[in-house]
Fold this protein.
Amino acid sequence: MQNEMVLLHGWGMNQGVWQVIMPELTFFHDGAVRCLDLPGFGNAQSIPTPYTLHAAAEQLSSELNEGSILVGWSLGGLFALYIAAHWPDKVAKVVLVASTPFFAQHDDWPGIKPDVLNAFKDQLVSHREKTIERFLAIQAMGSESARDDIKQLKLLLNQYPAPKEQALSAGLDILQHDDLRAMFAQLTVPIVGIFGRLDALVPYCALKKMQALQPNFDYEVIDKASHAPFISHKEAFITALKSVC
């Protein structure tokens, strides 16, 4: 029997995003497969005060069994890395999906431009729904059926409670400021990744930088995928996940 696989979603989302691939996951993975909401998103309405990566990751870690395989997409990847570093008995392996240890563009580190994150923060205050919808459109980039994918995503996400304002704002702060590169370099737990070559939020050139920090880091790239390969290229994603797990 394999270790339990736990799926962690990205910013503005909830566990509903994983429903598009749950049948395939439960078919190939012998262990249990579970989706968890990050604090303040979906069913996880209890949030730490203040909302920091440490406090939110500690709250999330209490829901994990020992030796979990953490599959973290985007912001969920930062949570997976942080939990692996601070509560290592909980984590047997980390699978990063379109996620890096540092999301912001900085010096020689490729990432999201500061003005993009700042714009999301500004818009979040006045147009929360539109901001999340715009973010949804980014997730589906690279898919030949982007419009249908976004429709399906909305239906799945709307089955769960709306995210809390504090969690949305804190999540953007974490993406903008939390730099886990030194932590990533020191981790001894196996870390693998699945990325989209066309990802606008996690540039392809960041992968070699990650490998320079962590020589044992191995990854698969889906050529025509963007930031949400499990939505836009489901079959290729499942194949990649099988190969890294």
In short: The longest helix spans residues 114-126. The longest strand covers residues 91-97.
